[in-house]
Design brief:
With about 200 residues, this protein is mostly beta strands. The protein is built from 2 helices and 15 strands. A 7-stranded mixed beta sheet has the order 1-2-7-6-11-12-13. It has a 6-stranded mixed beta sheet with strand order 10-9-4-3-14-15. The chain has a two-stranded antiparallel sheet with strand order 5-8.
Length: about 200
C-alpha cells in the first residue's frame, strides 16, 4: 500500500512498506559519501518510540536535488523495510549554508529543529527507526546506495552497516556525526552518542 504524505512546504512524499532486494541487503561495499550523508539518527525521544527523527546533510559544495532519492528503514534482520521516497524539488543547499539539512520527523516528534528549511513529517507511518538495533539506507534515483547507518548493542551486528555498526545509544541520546560530518565508512567510528540536535550540527 502506498500513502502520500505532505512533506512540509516543499512537496509530497510516498511511503510504502516493501522488502529490500537481496542485493541491497547483502552489498556491504564501503562507499565514502561526498554529497549527501545520513548525519544523525534518533530512534526515540521523551514522547517514546514515535518521537523520532533522521537528519540528512549535504556535505558538498553545490546544491543537491533529492527528488527520487529514497530512505529504507530496516530491522536488525533486514525485513521488512519501510521506504520513504523524497519528493521532487527537495533541494539541499551546500554544507554550512541555510538549508543544508533535511529532517525527517516521526508522528510524535517533540523536539525543536534549528534549521527548519527542509522538514519532512511522516504522519502516522508508525515506528520507522528501530530503537535497539537496525539500519537506514539512503539510495539515489538509480537505486545506488549513497550512505548507510547501522547500529546495535555490542556484540550484535546488523546485516546492513558500513564497517562495524555504531553502538546503540543510551536513552535520551541520538547517533550523530561530528561537526565536519566525517565519513570513513565505519559506522562505529563515524557515529557517536550525542544530544539531540535536529537541523544543527553536534
Amino acid at each position: 500500500m502506498i500513502r502520500h504524505l505532505v512533506g512540509g512546504a516543499l512537496g509530497v512524499l510516498a511511503l510504502s512498506l516493501v522488502t529490500a532486494p537481496a542485493s541491497d541487503a547483502r552489498d556491504l561495499t564501503p562507499r565514502v559519501s561526498t554529497t549527501v550523508l545520513i548525519n544523525e539518527v534518533s530512534s526515540q525521544g521523551t514522547s517514546g518510540a514515535l518521537d523520532e527523527y533522521l537528519e540528512l546533510r549535504n556535505v558538498s559544495t553545490v546544491p543537491v536535488d533529492l527528488g527520487g532519492f529514497r530512505l529504507q528503514f530496516h530491522s536488525s534482520s533486514c525485513v521488512p523495510a519501510e521506504t520513504v521516497f523524497l519528493s521532487q524539488g527537495m533541494v539541499l543547499q551546500p554544507m554550512n549554508s541555510a538549508g543544508q539539512y533535511l529532517v525527517l520527523i516521526g508522528q510524535n516528534f517533540s523536539g525543536v529543529i534549528q534549521d527548519p528549511t527542509n522538514v519532512v513529517p511522516v504522519g502516522n507511518a508508525g515506528d520507522l527507526i528501530p530503537t535497539r538495533a537496525g539500519a537506514v539506507v539512503l539510495l539515489d534515483t538509480t537505486g545506488r546506495r549513497v550512505d548507510t547507518a547501522g547500529w546495535a548493542p555490542p556484540p550484535e551486528t546488523p546485516c546492513l552497516r558500513e564497517g562495524q555498526p555504531a553502538s546503540t545509544p543510551p536513552p535520551g541520546l541520538s547517533l550523530s556525526r561530528n561537526y565536519l560530518s566525517w565519513d570513513t565508512d565505519n559506522n562505529r567510528t563515524d557515529f557517536n552518542p550525542s544530544p539531540h540536535t535536529p537541523g544543527a550540527q553536534w
